[in-house]
Amino acid sequence: MTDPSEYPNQGYDEWIDAIAAGEGYHLVCPEGHGSLPPRRICPECGAGGLAEEPLPASGEIETYSVTHVASPRFEDDAPYAIAIATFGDVAITGQVRDVSPENVDAGMVVTVDVDESATDDEPVVVFRPR
Ligand SMILES: [Zn+2]
């Protein structure tokens, strides 16, 4: 376990890199509340001293929506499903890949990964059915 305060620049980009490397993590406060970077204090109780802990290997889709007409940032990705999946007690938002949007459903068990947007090659958080 690493103390994030040793890494003052730690933020979303570093988190994306960690997910891409298969080393996804979340932040856990001394009270055990989970959250996602970038954060210095727990959003639930305000405690500092957040520690990094590995994300659970799989999560579950809680809710999703299918986008048929996307913003310019994702226009070549459409149609796609954006889902919120819970991994332990943290909720992550991402694009669902490897399955048609109409087959995405709440309760689907997924793994989290990082892939490129089909539109601009920028990294996006993606979920893949497990
Ligand atoms: Zn807390």
Bound molecules: zinc ion
**Terminal residue distance:** 26 Å
Low-pLDDT parts are 1-9
Q: Percent range for helical residues?
A: under 10%
| Rg over alpha carbons | 15 Å
Mean pLDDT level: 90
- SS class: mainly beta
Helical stretch tally: 1
Strand content: 35-45%
Q: Could you give the order of the helices and strands? A: HEEEEEEEE
So what's the overall shape? globular
> Number of domains in the coordinates?
2
Number of strands: 8
Question: How would you characterize this protein structure?
Answer:
- The chain is mainly β and 130 residues long.
- It has two domains: 51 residues, no CATH class; 71 residues, no CATH class.
- 7% of the residues lie in helices and 38% in strands.
- It contains one helix and eight strands.
- The strands form two sheets. The chain has a five-stranded mixed barrel with strand order 4-5-6-8-7. The chain has a three-stranded antiparallel beta sheet with strand order 2-1-3.
- The protein is globular and about 40 Å long.
- Bound molecules: zinc ion (ZN).
- Zinc ion (ZN) binds next to loops.
